[in-house]
Design brief:
It is built from 9 helices and 6 strands, in the order E-H-H-H-H-H-E-H-E-H-E-H-E-E-H. The chain is of the alpha/beta class. Strands 3-2-1-4-5-6 form a 6-stranded parallel beta sheet, with helices on one face. The relative contact order is 0.19. The chain is globular and about 50 Å long. The termini are close together. It binds 1,6-di-O-phosphono-beta-D-glucopyranose and magnesium ion (MG). The site of 1,6-di-O-phosphono-beta-D-glucopyranose has 19 residues, from helix 3.
Length: about 220
């Protein structure tokens, strides 16, 4: 019997990938690197600095910047990204999320957030769903990013359950890999590419019956 839910944020609760893309594209343009939507798929679920490193490698500029300059570039991208987030409201929840979270609350199934985003607390407040989560793993405290299972194991600790008792929701292959390595049941959500490692895949969370899911 499963006892709790662990949610990725971007791509599962809301679609902030489009704002990440605008901010990264503007930054990449300024340093003479061209990225497109197809390349952006590789950045999903990947930390801010890892995303920058992938963009630099994509443009053959991986050795052109010092660590301090890279930190400045990442900060610049984040300033633009946060400005784009200001207009978020509950209307930006992905379809079925509000219904699923309300049902989980009714059935007293606790949820936690396992997102690579350092902006997760702000985004959840803007979406009006912060109170639906027992806690958020702080990505600043992690040794390794997804696909390492660390973030998911920490989310299970927040829920006070074993990883095997948790169900993880992810939209990115790196996230599904991390969930499975943590020993959780993996639900793949809204995948734009096949999430081969997921135990099940859905297009919207309210396709799922929580009582049935807890029996997995
Ligand atoms: P930030 P998730 C991830 O969120 C995004 O998918 C990824 O594109 C982003 O680089 C990462 O968060 C870090 O975000 O710059 O806000 O700290 O999918 O793990 O919820
Ligand atoms: Mg995601």
């Amino acid at each position: 019997m499963k006892k709790g839910f662990v949610f990725d944020l971007d791509g599962v609760i809301t679609d902030t990938a489009k704002y990440h893309y605008i901010a990264w594209k503007n930054l990449a343009d300024k340093i003479g690197i061209s990225i497109d939507l197809e390349f952006n798929e590789q950045l999903k679920g990947i930390s801010r600095m890892d995303s920058l490193n992938r963009i630099l490698a994509h443009g053959g500029k991986e050795n052109d910047f010092t660590e301090a300059e890279k930190a400045e570039l990442a900060a610049k991208k984040n300033t633009e990204y946060v400005a784009l987030l200001q207009g978020l409201t509950e209307k930006d929840l992905l379809p079925g999320v509000a219904e699923f979270l309300a049902e989980a609350q009714k059935l007293k199934v606790p949820s936690a957030i396992a997102s690579a985003s350092k902006n997760a607390p702000f985004i959840l407040e803007k979406l009006g769903v912060a109170a639906d989560f027992v806690g958020i793993v702080d990505p600043n405290t992690l040794k390794k990013g997804k696909p390492d299972p660390e973030i998911f194991i920490r989310a299970a600790e927040i829920l006070n359950i074993q990883p095997e008792e948790a169900i993880g929701f992810e939209d990115a292959p790196a996230g599904i890999e991390g969930i499975k390595k943590a020993g959780m049941f993996a639900v793949g959500v809204l995948a734009s590419e096949p999430l081969t490692g997921a135990d099940i895949t859905v297009h919207r969370l309210d396709e799922l019956s929580i009582p049935d899911l807890l029996k997995k």
